[in-house]
Design goal:
Layout lengths: L5 H9 L1 H15 L4 H15 L3 H12 L4 H26 L11 H8 L13 H16 L7 H14 L5 H24 L1 H5 L2
Length: 200
């Protein structure tokens, strides 16, 4: 096991009370009758978001259809930008362990009760959340009047990561922010870079 970085130690100490309080509230919901619906939903979103494959498939389908090609390009571009910042840069740089990594903490018990889903990489920021927000915000920014419900999907993806106790709330918040910025950059490129005008 690698030694935690200074950034990971700071996140764990500065936001310990906030992260634990939010996860505790989510755990209380998980222990209620609502789990019959929310449990399968969270695990379904987890599967859909694995390696961004479900969102990549969405982008490819939109790109393949002439009427939605611009939306598909925006989704795929936002996903690529989000993955670059999250998975390539920040996750290895920060090196934060998952909430369930320490078996002596109550978070490990909550994780087991939520289904004990495991993840192979670092915790900060949430890759699932970044990808979901990047794709959904790209659609929203291209058509704010009709596609604002897409943001609900991104919100649900982030909440599902907390429900399964595979991320801290701060991981999810960072994922939402990075994903939205990735989407904004993708849409900007789509509007202002000539190559994208020639390949809509």
């Amino acid at each position: 096991m690698m030694e935690p970085t200074a950034a990971a130690l700071w996140l764990d100490s500065a936001f310990a009370e906030f992260d634990t309080a939010v996860l505790g509230a989510v755990h209380a919901v998980q222990q209620s009758g609502a789990d019959a619906v929310l449990g399968p939903l969270a695990r379904g979103l987890d599967l859909f978001g694995k390696a961004g494959l479900g969102l990549i498939a969405l982008g490819l389908v939109l790109t393949a259809l002439s009427g939605t090609r611009r939306y598909g390009v925006a989704v795929l571009l936002a996903l690529a930008i989000g993955a670059l910042f999250t998975n390539v840069a920040l996750k290895p740089l920060v090196g934060r362990e998952r909430p369930y990594a320490d078996e002596t903490r109550v978070l490990h018990q909550w994780w087991q009760e939520a289904g004990a889903e495991t993840e192979s990489d670092h915790s900060f920021p949430s890759g699932h959340t970044t990808a979901a927000m990047a794709a959904m915000a790209a659609l929203f920014l291209l058509n704010r009047r009709k596609l604002w419900p897409c943001l609900i999907g991104a919100a649900l993806m982030g909440l599902s990561r907390l429900y399964l106790v595979v991320h801290y709330p701060t991981d999810v918040i960072a994922g939402w922010l990075i994903g939205f910025l990735a989407a904004a950059l993708a849409v900007w490129l789509l509007h202002y870079v000539p190559w994208f005008h020639q390949h809509p």
